[in-house]
Amino acid sequence: MLVTPDDPVWIDVWIPVDDPLSSADVTGAFGWLGATWAGALDRLGATGIEVQGTGPGACTRWASLVCFGGVGAGEVTVSGRKVVGLAQRRNRSGAWFHTACVLRWDPTLLLEVLDLSPGERAAAATGLEAAVAGVADVLADGSSGDRPDRDDVVAALVDALP
Fold first, then answer.
1. Residue 58 within any structural domain of the chain
2. What CA–CA distance (Å, rounded) separates 59 from 66?
3. 64-74 pLDDT per residue, tens
């Protein structure tokens, strides 16, 4: 995962163990959060939104090297391309969920720091382009070119939170 000052939109959520949203099922615990992200993207105008269930999702051959190269439980795709990734850490007090929503997807910088041959780097760029999208890119308004920014994405998620 490459994190720059501008991308992705990174939002953490803490759920105490006694909260109604808390679940002892580690994989199933992502469901409500993926649905919340889907609601936020819907509010922004996205179509073709899907939330991965608890089973394995689509993976590229690059999933072991690039976090967004695969789709896990609760993660969100738009038209088949991953836009939101999820992770969690747990202790006796609850679960800390980490969410990342890519604004603009360009794997170039990330692939430059990986130990790949030029051919592998080119194949990874092609494979990841088909598997991942930036939410600002999939939500671009064709007539005006307006794209949501990080503040729009954060506001939409906060509004969608249960």
1. yes
2. 10
3. 889 899 999 99
**pTM of whole model > 0.85?**
yes
Hey, what amino acid is at 83?
A: V
Residues 28-61, buried b or exposed e (16+ Cβ, 10 A)?
ebbbbbbbbbbbbbeebebeebebbeeeebbebe
Domain of 133, CATH number, reads 3.30.930.10
- Range of the structural domain that residue 133 is part of: 9-140+148-157
The string of pLDDT tens digits covering residues 91-142 is: 999 999 999 999 999 999 999 999 999 999 999 999 999 999 999 888 875 4
Could you give the number of structural domains in the chain? 1
Q: Is residue 1 part of a domain?
A: no
